[in-house]
Predict the structure.
Amino acid sequence: MKVYHHIEDFQGANNATVTTGTFDGVHIGHRKILNRLKEVAQSVKGETVLFTFHPHPRLVLQPDIDLKLLSTPEEKIMLLEQVGIDHLIIHPFTKEFSRLSSIEFVRDYLVNQIGTKKLVIGYDHHFGRNREGSFEHLLEYGPTYGFDVEEIPALDVDHVNVSSTKIRTALSEGDVQTAATYLSYPYRITGTVVEGDKIGRSIGFPTANINVDFSNKLIPSDGVYAVLATIDGISYKGMLNIGNRPTVDTSHNKRIEVNLFQFDNEIYGKTVTLSFIAHVRSEKKYESLEALKTQLSKDKEQCINLLQ
């Protein structure tokens, strides 16, 4: 997959078969669009092109909202490469860009810059200034500018329309299994191991403290989770706590701490990717460190069973 960080860098594609959107998380709804995109490209001996944006448009247009994202830019690139896209254009999203009318977006970007021959879009897709552009606009512009357009209907799973918003809601409630169903993979966060206060070590549950570098990355709700941790390409089983550690800490600072099973290597400064497999329990304050230790033993046993 070729990646371009500005549309000016794009060198063109044979019979460009294009889709556009934010594709946060690259969930199963997105994958239906992308699989159809590949089918259409194959039918015309073309190449697939995904035109997306960074930062996320809502972060530019609504800077006061606390929008958290399912994927970092690096994760999105990796996921789209796994899907098998030929060309990925990540264009800078600015307020100036947001003021383009729908016809300017189609003419100047999709046609003149990309050379779109086939356009595949998701259900109820909107584009251009104030989201004025629609499928009907594209049907109107297509004959004028020489491209065909196809709309993918809404994808339902268990009668629930899949969207990035609904996945974010599931994660904010700790429902990582529903999120995994909608994403088609376990939700992941990546961060760097930083030094902690070593309280876990003192009670027999040493933890690696994870600092997530991407400030807009969505962190699931506080609680204990069964996870898989990938370090230097090797996967380890573990249990993760997200929260303020009310039994041992009065600072109310949120921590992300993972206890890796059968692991005692020094990993300060290492990058760790955590895959959420199951939610075990909510965070709770215990009356003593001994009571917490007893609960952690039960949590570990449950995590081991969940990760079998």
